[in-house]
Amino acid sequence: MTAPMVYVLFPGTAREALTFYAGVFGGELSLHTNADFGSGGPPGAIAHGVLDGVVTLAGADAGRQEKSVQVQGVMLSLLGTAEPALLHKWFAQLSDGGRIVDPLAPKAWGASDGQVVDRYGLHWLIGYEPAAASAVKSATEGNGLHES
Q: Do the domain assignments include residue 68?
C-alpha cells in the first residue's frame, strides 16, 4: 500500500455498507467473518473487509469495546478522480438514502463540487475543474461524437 486507506468500523453493517460501496464504485470486494478468522464475537460479523478498486475502503463490524463510525470534520475527497459524468453518477448513488450537504454544481470559484453524507455516515466531497469537463467534450467532438 502506498497511501493511507480509510478503515471504517461499522455498527454491525459492514457487509451491507461495503457491498453498497462496491455497487457504487466497482472493484473487488473481499469479506471475512469472525468465523473465517476464528476470532471472538458473532460468527457472521465482518472481522475484515476490503473494497479494492478505483476507490479503496476497508472496514469491519465494531466489536463490543469499539466505537463505530462517527465522521466529523473529515471528508473523503474524490475531487478530479474520474470524468465529470461518472462523478455525478457516484454523487447520485451516494445520495440515495443519505443527505446532500451541498449539491454537486458549478461554484463561484469556477469548479464544480458538492458534498454528501451517505446512508452509512461517510462524508464525501466530489467535484472537478471545468477543464476536465471541457476536455471530455473536446475529445467526444474530435471523435465525431456529439451530445444532443
A: no
Please write the tens of the pLDDT for every residue from 13-25. 999 999 999 999 9
Global pTM? 0.83
Nearest alpha carbon to residue 16 among 123, 148, 121, 145: 121
Within-domain flag for 67? no
CATH of the domain at 10: 3.30.720
The domain of 116 spans 76-142
Residues 135 and 102 in one domain: yes
Band of residue 132 on the pLDDT scale cut at 50, 70, 90? low
